[in-house]
């Protein structure tokens, strides 16, 4: 089916209670195809927090293809959290484009736990001065899961700030990729843009490909990017075991600490606790 969600926050409206959107795909026999076209508008000077979660019921294979457009108007504030918990027979393509006005703040979080083939596209367009943008994500993959995260931040005007951190843990034969592009347009002087991709492989068969990219056409900027891939810290594991913590619990502690660097930036404590619970029971 083709449906969608429309959220409109009027000018100056400060919504204290977060909005929760629960996407449930249900099917037992037929292969399902779902396409959503969503539009979220955060009016001038308004503020809202939106939590979206994805779930499946039944064993049927499914494909969800979502397009979400978000407009964060001048001086508006958005915190958007996406939690992907669909079953391992469920594939997803998520396309999200966020337009930011002057003096606006947007924070996005993407947590991927379950799913078959998943592609997340996140495109930011910073269309006026003094915007602040945060892109954060964490993914915990195992089995034969495949995940592709693609982000693009377009700095189109001067004096804007963006910060991006994506962290992944992969086990078994899971594979992932991260492609992050920062575009700094000729007019976008005084741009500050930072990007980091960090990954841990728990098995010899897990794979991660990272491709950070900078394309800069302004000369007065501060930009950086980096990517790391490695194993769990053996010295830290030894240190914890030397203090009486068994190897399994020590491993869990290190994984939790790794993901915490992303989840601790969520302002909603119940969501932080929920993410912590998912992480602690994952491997």
In what range is the share of β-strand residues? over 45%
Shape: globular
Q: Main beta sheet: strand number and arrangement?
A: 9 strands, parallel
| Low-pLDDT stretches | none
Give the N-terminus to C-terminus distance in angstroms: 35 Å
Order of helices and strands: EEEEEEEEEEEEEEEEEHHH
Number of separate strands: 17
Helix-and-strand structural type: mainly beta
Output the radius of gyration.
19 Å
Helix content: 10-25%
User: Count of DSSP helices?
Assistant: 3
Arithmetic mean of pLDDT: 94
Q: Which key terms come to mind for this protein?
A:
globular; eight-stranded parallel β-sheet; single chain; mainly beta; 283 residues
Structure in words:
- The chain has helices spanning 234-242, 247-263, 269-280; strands at 2-3, 6-9, 19-26, 32-42, 47-57, 62-72, 77-84, 90-100, 105-112, 117-126, 132-141, 146-155, 161-170, 175-184, 191-201, 207-216, 221-230.
- 13% of the residues lie in helices and 55% in strands.
- The two termini are 35 Å apart.
- 36% of the residues are buried.
- It contains three helices and 17 strands.
- Helix 2 runs antiparallel to helix 3.
- It is globular, with a radius of gyration of 19 Å.
- The chain is mainly beta.
């Amino acid at each position: 089916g083709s449906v969608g969600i429309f959220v409109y926050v009027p000018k100056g409206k400060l919504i204290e209670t977060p909005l929760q959107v629960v996407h449930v795909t249900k099917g037992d026999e037929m292969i399902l195809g779902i396409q959503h076209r969503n539009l979220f508008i955060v009016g001038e000077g308004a503020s809202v927090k939106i939590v979206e979660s994805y779930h499946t019921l039944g064993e049927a294979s499914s494909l969800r293809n979502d397009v979400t457009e978000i407009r964060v108007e001048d001086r508006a504030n958005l915190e958007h959290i996406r939690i992907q918990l669909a079953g391992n027979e469920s594939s997803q393509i998520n396309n999200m484009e966020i337009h930011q006005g002057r003096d606006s703040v947007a924070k996005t979080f993407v947590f991927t736990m379950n799913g078959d083939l998943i592609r997340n596209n996140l495109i930011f367009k910073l269309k006026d001065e003094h915007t602040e943008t945060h892109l954060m994500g964490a993914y915990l993959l195992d089995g034969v899961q495949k995940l592709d995260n693609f982000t693009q931040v377009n700095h189109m005007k001067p004096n804007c700030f963006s910060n991006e951190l994506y962290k992944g843990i992969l086990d078994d034969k899971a594979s992932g990729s991260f492609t992050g592009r920062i575009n700094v347009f000729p007019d976008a002087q005084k741009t500050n843009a930072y990007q980091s991709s960090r990954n841990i492989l728990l098995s010899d068969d897990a794979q991660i490909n990272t491709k950070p990219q900078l394309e800069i056409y302004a000369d007065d900027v501060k930009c950086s990017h980096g990517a790391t891939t490695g194993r769990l810290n053996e010295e830290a594991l030894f240190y914890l075991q030397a203090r009486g913590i068994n190897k399994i619990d020590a491993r869990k502690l290190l994984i939790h600490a790794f993901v915490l660097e992303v989840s601790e930036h969520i302002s909603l404590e119940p969501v932080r606790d929920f993410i912590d619970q998912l992480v602690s029971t994952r491997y």
